[in-house]
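[Meeting: bench + compute handoff]

Bench side (C.D.) handed over the final construct sequence. Compute side (W.E.) agreed to return the predicted structure before the next meeting so the bench team could plan truncations. Sequence as handed over:
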Amino acid sequence: MTMTDVDPENEKQLPIRELSARTQINTVTLRAWERRYGLLTPQRTAKGHRLYSEKDVAKVERILDIVARGVPIRRVKALLQESCVEVSQGNKTEEWQDSVAELIAAVESFSLTKVGHLIQKSFSHYPAPICHDRLMNPVFAELVLSDDSGATFGFAESELIRYVLMRLSPKVTRERFSDTVILITGNQTPIWRLAIMALELSDAKFSVHLLTRAFSVAAGTKLAGKCKHAYTVFYQDGIWKDKEQETATTGLLINDRLFLCGTAPALTQLGAEERVFVDVKGCIGGLLRLQKKSLIGRKMEM
């Protein structure tokens, strides 16, 4: 059977958007894994549309497991042919350190073209959580220590946000979503973590709106109350004052679609533990659980 043949008697075939939904990997990344790295070999319909099997789902999950260990994507194909993945920690660290150093150098030179290219390349070839852990987190950890009044940190953050907003554009995603999430950052809280969270949620088939300015607790919770059709995540680091805690507590009580994330809410006794998280990873998990419950409910109503 050739790549372009489809056997109607074979197991159910999945279009790329369904493979993306099952694995939470952006279609751009799936295509890069196929074209650039030869990791996937989909069948094709007569019109050339990609079709995948359950074996492909399992392969994508194995690829995710490998890159999560720090293995660069270009080395994955050889490792897929082995029964177990054994990669020395030294090699893994060195590979990612080179990428971190390259991006920092581009940021410090304030090269819009180079920084944009490196961000686009990384997020096209790797899932957003991998880019967060292996690239952007160490980059921002080093930039925040720079003695430049925040110039390089702000530049890198603005370029990342610019890329994320492009990815979230309806013209780029071309997806149909069942749930909407609004992401809001609090005062004096870096927005870059929410920007990557936006990509993760978009890959999980949420319609995501990332607000790119900071809001006070009062303004953020009030906005969330006005957008009752959507889930709202308010992300705030630091420590809240008494009035801010009171405002947040009231917001949670009157709005069951409000999520609070960051050190400020985590350090405060707010109740509603299923909607208060110390980090974006936990918050994403909470939203995914609600999404799954919502999908089950809609199927039962059909």
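W.E. noted at the follow-up: The CA atoms of residues 59 and 83 lie 13 Å apart. C.D. will use this when planning the next construct.
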